[in-house]
Amino acid sequence: MTKDKIKQAYVEYILEKGTQPESIYAFCKKLKIKEAAFYEEYTSFPQIESEVWKEYFLDTITSAQNEEVYGTYSVREKLLAFFYTWVEVLKQNRSYILKAYEGFQKPIYAKRNVQLSEFKIAFYDYINELVLEARETKEIEQRPIPQLMQRYPDLFWAKTLFILDFWINDTSKSFEKTDTMIEKSVNTAFDLLGHSPLDSLLDLGKFLFQNRRA
User: Fold this and answer.
1) What pLDDT band is residue 209 in, cutting at 50, 70 and 90?
2) What backbone phi and psi angles, to 5 degrees, belong to 42?
3) How far apart are CA 34 and CA 172, in angstroms?
4) 25 and 72 co-located in one domain
5) Residue 214: inside a domain, yes or no?
6) Mean pLDDT score of the chain
7) Which SUPFAM superfamilies match (predicted)?
8) Which of 45, 120, 59, 123 is nearest to 90 (CA)?
9) Above 80 in pLDDT, residue 208?
């Protein structure tokens, strides 16, 4: 049995039984494969879940970037497109996600959930590229505190988990409130990270300091 088939069988088991298999042994027995075959592909059930979440992310990126207009977007628009597309991918798998979510430590944006580890790694690669692009296009202000700027990917990861948590609990028609929250959240982030009155004040202070009278 291939890796993808094991993964699909696991997802179907969660959907049908509403819970994780009692053991890898029991799961393998149901699939009529030896445990050794399972361990050749995965080390645990959380590892399968981690790969599933990464797959949702990769599907999102592929779908968003396949849109002809994506390349013309500003970084703010690219991130909005990512989140809107991601939620659409999540909608297609909501039944599984709701069950998987039950096994997460909460609140998810303040806890480390191993099920999201591969998704997190892939997301950081993606967001680091966007942050770099945003610095080049001046959508994100270059600030004289490197330690602060290094934390920007952490900020966007926290927002991602917050959006997931919000969507899980969203009962509005077609998850309209989630769309609104995405828009406000991303716009607020770029308003804060972009040039602001505070930056103008800091620039003035720097100028006055450099040109102070001896």
Assistant:
1) low
2) -140, 155
3) 45
4) no
5) no
6) 91
7) Tetracyclin repressor-like, C-terminal domain
8) 59
9) no
